[in-house]
Every structure is written in C-alpha cells, then in structure tokens.
Amino acid sequence: MKPLFTQGTIPRYRVLACALVAVALMVSEQRFSQVEVLRARLASVVTPIQWLASLPGDALAWSSLVLSNQQQLVEENQQLRQQILTLSQRTQRMASLTAENLRLRELLHAAKRRDISYITAELLTLDSDPFTHQVVVDRGRRDGVFVGQPVMDASGIVGQVIGVSAYSSRVLLLADANHALPVQINRNGLRFIVQGTGRFDTLMVRHVSDTADIREGDLLISSGLAGRFPAGYPVARVSRVEHDPGKPFARVEATPISRLERARHFLLLFPPPPRDTLWDESFAIRELPKALLSVLPPLTAPPAEEPEP
C-alpha cells in the first residue's frame, strides 16, 4: 500500500491541503447549521456499511449458538428455570408492596408516577476515536429518536443521544469526560453532579462538601433535575471517598451501574414533558391552604381597559 505522506516536496503540499480542509470543516461546523444536516445525511449513507461491518460478529454469535452442545443447553435451561422461580417469588412479593404503596399514596394524597414509554435498540458500531466514548445504535429519526434522549440498559443509565440520522443514532456514554448527570443519594437524598473521567469503571462526583453525608457503597440515582433524565433510575455506586482536612471538598469516585463496555441492547426512554406546576389549578387547590385561597384573588387575566373617548 502506498503511504499517504512520504518525503519530498509534493507531500508537504498534501499535508498543508489536509490541514486547510480540516480547519475549514471546523469553522463551518461552528458557523453554519447546515453542516449538522449534511452530517446526518452522510450518516444515513454510511449506515448500510455499518450494518455490513456488523454482520461477521452477528454470524459468529449465531454459529456459536447453533453449534452449542446439548449438555450446555440443558444446564442453561436449568439455570433459567431457577431464575424463573426466583423472579416469580419476587413478583408475588412486589404485588403486595405495590398494593401497600398505593394505599400509602392514597393516604398522603400523593400524585401517581407516570409510566415512561421506550423503544429497544441494538449496538451497531463503536466510535473509533480513543479520546471519546460513543456508540452508534440502530434506531434513528424514523423511530422517533431525538437529541438529548436518555439511554439505559438492563442495569442503569448508559448515556444520552447526541446525534440522530434517519436510521441510526449516536450515544454519548457516561464514561465520556464531556458527560455530566445530576444525581442524588438514594439513602438520604443529597444531590450532586456525576461526571465522566474517560474510564469505563470510574466516575467523579463533583463538588462534594467535606462534611457531606456520603459513604462508600451509597447508590446514586438520577435526580430528575434539568428535565432530561427521569428521576429514580440507578446511575452509579460510590466506590471511594477521600477527605482532606485542608480542602473544602472531598474527592469522591463512583462505579457505573450499567455495563458500558459489554452492553449490546439498550432502551431509549421517552420521558413525559415536565408539568407546569405554577399554573396547575389542581396542584394549587391541593397544596395551598383553603384560607389562603379565599384571600387571594382568582387567577384570571385582568379585564381589558376601555379606550378613552
């Protein structure tokens, strides 16, 4: 194969031309919104090539499944039966807990949590850039995917969608250094920000006061702040807490709950739009005291002033 850059006068012009093209592309991406549309269309063109590239791996997985021996299938069948029995017992216990939770909510007059719809997606390709942690999944604009959509696997939150084409989408993982997520401690409700470090096994919990009640093993869940990620989904577990008497903040590290390096199937969530509780009449009637409601004037628009003759 002939190298792209060799010694001589002409290759120097090639390097200069490539550098000028790169600078022009970066400037055009910052100044013109049409570049994003062009990128989405190019991604739609590249999608069949990505599918073809993933075919050998899918064929290998299918062949290994077909060629599995009978003893292994029998053992897996027994393990699955045991898991079914365990899950059935948990389901029965969950039914009683759900009924108890419903009675407590009725007693407290609390609002019901709304169900979140979702679609499934499968890993298509990995990003080749070693300085970013991004993946491409086989769902796109035709499936209703949008930029900023939360993504999770069977264990917890994986990341969010940052680019959408017609048939595929690009997902930024939690491990990326440019990804941040508002979380809270499941034990006491303290709220923090979790940011990626560029490593799949470590996240940083930012701006933790040295006197904050945070311990190793605490479960961090999404807080629902900023309205992008729904509340209550597992994100990470605190793995290390270092207190320095000379600094106001502690160094806290966490391990992601989701399997960022091994997951192949994902869920793309469609969280409902946030409710405007300021002008929600039912919320006001439920929360404000009746005496205060009787004093306040009704929430109606003032009458229009008549024009002077």
Automatic annotation (TrEMBL):
<dbReference type="InterPro" id="IPR007221">
    <property type="entry name" value="MreC"/>
</dbReference>
<dbReference type="GO" id="GO:0008360">
    <property type="term" value="P:regulation of cell shape"/>
</dbReference>
<dbReference type="GO" id="GO:0005886">
    <property type="term" value="C:plasma membrane"/>
</dbReference>
<comment type="function">
    <text>Involved in formation and maintenance of cell shape.</text>
</comment>
<keyword id="KW-0175">Coiled coil</keyword>
<dbReference type="InterPro" id="IPR055342">
    <property type="entry name" value="MreC_beta-barrel_core"/>
</dbReference>
<dbReference type="Pfam" id="PF04085">
    <property type="entry name" value="MreC"/>
</dbReference>
<feature type="domain" description="Rod shape-determining protein MreC beta-barrel core">
    <location>
        <begin position="127"/>
        <end position="268"/>
    </location>
</feature>
<keyword id="KW-0133">Cell shape</keyword>
<feature type="coiled-coil region">
    <location>
        <begin position="70"/>
        <end position="114"/>
    </location>
</feature>
<protein>
    <recommendedName>
        <fullName>Cell shape-determining protein MreC</fullName>
    </recommendedName>
</protein>
<comment type="similarity">
    <text>Belongs to the MreC family.</text>
</comment>
<dbReference type="InterPro" id="IPR042175">
    <property type="entry name" value="Cell/Rod_MreC_2"/>
</dbReference>
<dbReference type="InterPro" id="IPR042177">
    <property type="entry name" value="Cell/Rod_1"/>
</dbReference>
